[in-house]
Amino acid sequence: MTGAGKQRAVRLGPRSTAALVLVGAVGVAGFGWPFLAPPASAVSAHARDAPWLFAGLLVLLVAVVAATISESGLGPKAVAMLGVLAAAGAALRPLGAGTAGLEPMFFLMVLSGRVLGPGFGFVLGSVTMFASALLTGGVGPWMPFQMLAMGWFTMGAGLLPGAERLRGRGELLLLSGYGFLAAVAYGTVMNLAGWPFMGELASNIAFLPDAPLATNLARFVTYCLATSLGWDLGRAVLTVVLTITLGSTVLKSLRRATRRAAFESQVTFDAPAT
User: Fold this and answer.
1) To the nearest 10°, the Cα dihedral for 144, 150, 153, 157?
2) pLDDT over 90 at 165, yes or no
3) Cα–Cα distance between 235 and 42 in angstroms, integer?
């Protein structure tokens, strides 16, 4: 009896890929509409309503993507691992909450996405952020944006090159570099979810619906530097430190668990010897 194929929790099929592309396109619009919509457009005219509308739409789309990926191969063993990793990530997040942006869950998401692939990674990132929001009471219009951003973050780790061959220090350096950049990017895109709400509270950095792109871009950069860069760097540095120090052990454990679960291995029986 033999098993075939590299073990992954979920393999993305055409429908799953199409669903991810769709939610990605809507997500880019949901996050980036302040820069994408012309000043005279109807979206800019409803600057206070647009984030809420996009938040409601993202909830539905993330659910559709999770369901589509599940239909393409998220079996009982993968669901069990999803539950364990999501619970672990949700439990890790509050440990550093409120302390210079230190969030140890990020390194676990990077390593899990690396081992289990982009499809599983997207579902894991979204479910983990949803569970942590329930755990910490952080439910609000920002939650769908957090779910999508974390889904992207974890999925990206599964798309990194060398998944089958790169091991050891080289892999840890690759994951550390990705984790640093992605942790900063996560904070930056999440700023886009809240920045349009500022109104005139801080006139020199607030979003102006009738201003040109260059003006709003400069205001957004100033907003990021003034409000979140310290938190983003703290999150990024912690992700690198944990990946370097604990990454090898966690990667081995995840790969061992994946092999034992044999998510997608096809069992065949050899013909008896004659």
Assistant:
1) -130
2) no
3) 37
Q: Both ends of the chain: CA-CA distance in Å?
A: 17
Kindly report the pTM of this predicted structure.
0.77
In tens, the pLDDT along 72-129 reads 556 677 778 888 888 888 888 777 655 556 778 889 999 999 988 888 888 888 888 8
The neighbouring-strand residues paired with 268 are 2
Is there a contact between 263 and 5 (Cβ–Cβ < 8 Å)?
no
CA distance 64 to 59: 9
Give the number of other Cβ atoms within 10 Å of residue 246's Cβ.
15
What is the DSSP-derived secondary structure letter of residue 9?
S
Q: Name the token pair of 201.
A: 């509270």
Integer angstrom CA distances of residue 87 from 58, 82, 125, 131, 162: 22, 8, 11, 7, 28
For residue 35, give both structure tokens: 């820069």
Residue 14 is which amino acid?
P
pLDDT digits (tens, 9 = 90+) for 136-162: 656 666 777 888 889 889 999 999 988
| Other residues' Cβ atoms within 10 Å of the Cβ of residue 192 | 21
Residue written as token pair 């409120």: 98
| Proportion of the chain in helix, strand, coil states, percent, rounded to 5 | 70, 0, 30
Q: What is the pLDDT of residues 221-256, one digit of tens each?
A: 888 888 888 888 888 999 999 999 999 999 999 888
